[in-house]
């Protein structure tokens, strides 16, 4: 378990990122929560601190190199090291390819893929000196199987899987592991808004007959962040209820 380890989590203020922060903190990790706005980032840090965890809010945009450099400088100034990076920040701008706007393509590739590249490059400087580290990229089942209406998002998540494997090869000699978690359909605020009928149709495509929870994803991240996973690198861990094998 990552007790006392310092974990930087991007997009930590809500959804899957928030669950990852809470689960890692529950196992004793120190959390650096990164997100775009002060109020929601402070709120998740207050929630973490209320559980007795050590946590720090850093407001920044993962697509901006200067912000990313500052995130890791701040983490090192506060806690002396970074043991775990979870590249979780992500967005969608869905639409059929024929009508997709340039800015929707660029925005999704920029946050989901370039953001992970910038954060990984910045944390590598820290982790390579430590000669240890865990990097976990949150991909998606649709990066593995494709999805109509999400060409930009699927390309970004398939790209993230390629980035994961390349970085795993480059960083292995420093004892840094790099893995991806590929969530399936996860129950979030967005899916709560769907009708029971639509939710039942989604669940019918899943062998385990239910949507996943943010905690299902967080538990997989905790494993990949732990000492127990030291011989696993370049792996894509599907957490999708069997919907894609
Ligand atoms: P969400 O939209 O609830 O949370 C994403 C967080 O990332 C937000 O707090 C947002 O402010 C932050 N963020 C967005 N752009 C950012 C930027 N440029 N810099 C810093 N932070 C930024 O999303 P959710 O559902 O929790 O998803 C988290 C990750 O899991 C994403 O990478 C998403 O693609 C992935 N995922 C989600 C699935 C789902 O069903 N919810 C399924 C498969 C993958």
Structure description:
The chain is an alpha/beta fold. It has one domain: NAD(P)-binding Rossmann-like Domain (Rossmann fold), CATH 3.40.50. It has 9 helices and 7 strands; from the N terminus they run βαβαβαβαβααβαααβ. Helix 3 (65-79) packs parallel to helix 4. The longest helix is centred in the middle third of the chain and has 29 residues, at 102-130. Bound molecules: 1,4-dihydronicotinamide adenine dinucleotide. 1,4-dihydronicotinamide adenine dinucleotide binds at residues 10-11, 13-17, 35-36, 61-63, 88-91, 111, 115, 138, 140, 183, 185-186, 188.
Could you provide a short overview of the structure?
It contains 9 helices and 7 strands, in the order βαβαβαβαβααβαααβ. It is an alpha/beta fold.
In the predicted model, the low-confidence regions spanning at least 5 consecutive residues are none
* Main β-sheet, spatial strand arrangement: 3-2-1-4-5-6-7
Q: What would the CATH topology be?
A: Rossmann fold
> Which whole number gives the mean pLDDT?
96
Strand content: 15-25%
How many domains, in number, for the residues? Answer: 1
**How many strand segments?**
7
Q: What's the layout of helices and strands?
A:
Elements: E1 6-10, H1 15-26, E2 30-35, H2 38-50, E3 55-59, H3 65-79, E4 84-87, H4 102-130, E5 133-138, H5 141-145, H6 151-171, E6 176-183, H7 189-192, H8 196-204, H9 214-225, E7 236-239
Parallel strand pairs: 1-2, 1-4, 2-3, 4-5, 5-6, 6-7
Helix pairs in contact: 1-9, 3-4, 4-6
